[in-house]
Amino acid sequence: MKHPQKISITPRDRLLRAWENSMELVRDFECYSKEIKDSPKISETFAEFAKDEGFHAARFRELLLETQE
Q1: How far is CA 53 from CA 7, 20, 45, 63, in A?
Q2: What pLDDT, in 10s, does the model give residues 17-44?
Q3: What is the pTM of this model?
Q4: What is the 3-state secondary structure (H, E, C) of the chain?
Q5: Domain membership flag for residue 32
Q6: List of residues 6+ apart from 29 with CB closer than 8 A
Q7: 3 lies in a domain?
Q8: Residue 2, domain member (yes or no)
C-alpha cells in the first residue's frame, strides 16, 4: 500500500544536500584559517582542509549536473 503523505528523498536530493554542506565547510574552513593568527599550524590545517573540501564540493556539483541531463 502506498502512503500518499510519505515524502520521498531521492539520491539527487542527497547530492544537493551534500553539495550545500560541503560548500559551507569550505567557507567555514577558509574563514577559520584567516581568523587564526597565533597558531600557523592550525591556520594552515584549516586552509588545507578548505582546499580538500573544495574538491569534494566540485565532485558533488559534477554529479548534480549529470543527474540533470
Answers
A1: 30, 11, 12, 15
A2: 999 999 999 999 999 999 999 999 999 9
A3: 0.84
A4: CCCCCCCCCCHHHHHHHHHHHHHHHHHHHHHHHHHCCCCHHHHHHHHHHHHHHHHHHHHHHHHHHHHHC
A5: yes
A6: 46, 47, 49, 50, 53
A7: no
A8: no
C-alpha neighbours within 13 Å on the C-beta side of residue 26: 14
Burial 45-61 (b: 16+ CB within 10 A, else e): ebbebbeebbebbeebe
∠ CA 64-21-17 to the nearest 5 degrees?
A: 45
Q: How many domains does the chain have?
A: 1
Full residue range of the structural domain in which residue 43 is found: 13-68
How far, in Å, CA of 51 to CA of 54, rounded?
A: 5
